[in-house]
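Box S1 | Example of a co-folding query
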Amino acid sequence: MQTNLPADFIATSAGQRANEILRSCVHCGFCNATCPTYQLSGDELDGPRGRIYLIKELLEGGYDSTRAMTHLDRCLTCRACETTCPSGVAYGELAEIARVRLGPSRSGLNGLMRQVLRWLIPYPKRLSPLVTLASKARLVLPKQLRRYLPEPTQSKVRLPADFQSQPRQKTDGDHDAVVEALPSRQVVILQGCVQRVVTAEVNTHLQTLLAARGIKMMTVQAEACCGALDLHLGAESAALKKIKANIDALAPLVGLVDAIISTASGCGVTFKDYPRLLADDPEYAEPAVAVAGLVQDVAEYVATADLDLAVAQKGIKVAWHPPCSLQHGQQVTGVVEELLTRAGCELVPVADAHLCCGSAGTYSILQPARAKALREEKLEALQKQSPDVIVTANVGCQTFLAQATPVAVRHWIELLK
Ligand code: SF4
Ligand code: SF4
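Box S1 (continued) | Returned holo structure for iron/sulfur cluster
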């Protein structure tokens, strides 16, 4: 694709990357075939190829940015188009550059909702009391809302053994003190801001599995939101602040732990992207590479650590929903299926597994009609073989799917013992 971006924009690293990405697109349109929003509307501008044209117009300047905003806001950032693209177009990165250009503000109710979500979701101390309050009022809430809430016992789950982060630049003496405090085989678990409030039982279950195999799992008290929510909503500087806080919290553990594990693939994909996001930062670029190098989805960790896990309920029929952030974002495919099959689960076939369920971070709240239409199709595919349970690997997919099905929806690790 030919581009004509302003020279002052090309002089920036974002401009350079945008130019490279735009030029790598050959307009073939293969990506439209796997784009969920294109499949819903049939509108070229709601598919990746059309959005790439809109982004080019936006970044070249002189065009109406409202059109780009409308169609970019309808994009799930599922990155199915990246998996399909034969030219390796980094659509997710391009969309992120465009969203930063558009900024986080929107007019009307949508703008207000975005502000509330950015104020609330990344902060467990704000989210948790709200969820607790709603849990207490669960009996009077509509069924649709109740399914968002953790079961009363789940909301009380807390992980022990928090690691209090030391300052990132430490003396050798401080370093030794940390080593002494740690057992021989240990991992850090990322708690996630929504997951620790809504599905804390996932990490508690993992902790039990690991402890039974002599592996100590610890949390880091200073863990902040991974930054995904701000990034998806175009608030780059707020995202970078959170990302740097995470580097400060986790970098002291590099060399001391085997892995930093994520059980929420939506957070994991962002943590793995820290080196790209901080590439131009002289202070954080190096520690970002070190921290991200340790980050693994729990499936990758279980597979590489060769943990011998068995299914808790023999012969259970399982429908697997791979989150987009795992299959397209992290390109982790086939691993969970293999682990579950090896453990003794019966995996049922699910059509169109590459398609998003509609959850997509805050998408289900900001674009509810499209999200519900996608969920309907996803649940039809997942329920076709009458599974006993639907499993996934991200808290957003789990809670969003659970609202609309009588079938139990769990994190896949919870099936194992
Ligand atoms: S498949 Fe790739 S190269 Fe083809 S239009 Fe889509 S993004 Fe461009
Ligand atoms: S990220 Fe998903 S919704 Fe957005 S253009 Fe790509 S395939 Fe379509």
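The two ends are 52 Å apart (CA to CA). Strands lie at 162-163, 186-190, 216-220, 259-262, 295-297, 317-320, 346-347, 389-392, 408-411.
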